[in-house]
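URGENT: need a sanity check before tomorrow's submission.

F., can you look over the ATP-binding cassette domain-containing protein record below? I want to be sure the sequence and structure line up before it goes out.
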Amino acid sequence: MLKAENLTLYVNDNGSRKCLLNDISFHVDDGEMLVITGPNGGGKSTLAKTLIGIEKADSGKIMLNEQDITDYDINHRANAGIGYAFQQPPRFKGMPVSKLLTLAAGRSLSIDECCDLLTAVGLCAEEYVERQIDGTLSGGEMKRIEIASVLAKDHELCIFDEPEAGIDLWSFSMLIQKFEEMHKEKKQSLIVISHQEKIIDMADRIMIIDDGEIKKIGKREDVLPYLNGVQKCHNCAENRERRA
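Structure tokens as predicted:
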């Protein structure tokens, strides 16, 4: 359904050319949940932004349902069926939550429909539906409203960048239930960037990215032992640094 071929992205870093994505190739099948994980700064969010069109790859190709969307901008990719939830959601002073959800849905939503979306991400709907999306909202509140905006419309593929960041345990449990519903019941294709064990355990396949490269990709049961070994080595290295 989604196919990325040889995605490569460079940026200028203090006068030198730095590679953020190096020849990334993978696919996501219909109804599949791919979890992308790996060290911070390894290129996970850069890849997600490249898929939605925020970043423009220097080379490579992106296909959605056998349609070449490489040259599509972010609006055309959204219209083609890609939903995206930012790691750090933008704020829109003066815009109420109900308006954002209506814009995200692409149609007029009733207050009851908006409330259902907010309830699904663990927010008390009556308190939030007419709140402005500004600095009065915490990071966790913004994160859940952002996720609700993605849920407002059916997509061919949804991309969530660390959806668990900044939310409490109760809301996280509701989020897990929503992902299970999207994956198992709606058979929706998902890319989820996460370090959270419960989300990783839900994956059909896992992809590990570090230094802008795919270090490992495969079925959950095949990649988990490798991932656990990498994390164990990383923890040992951190402990050695503390003792030094």
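My own read: The chain has one domain: 33-55+82-239. The mean pLDDT is 89. If you see anything odd, call me.
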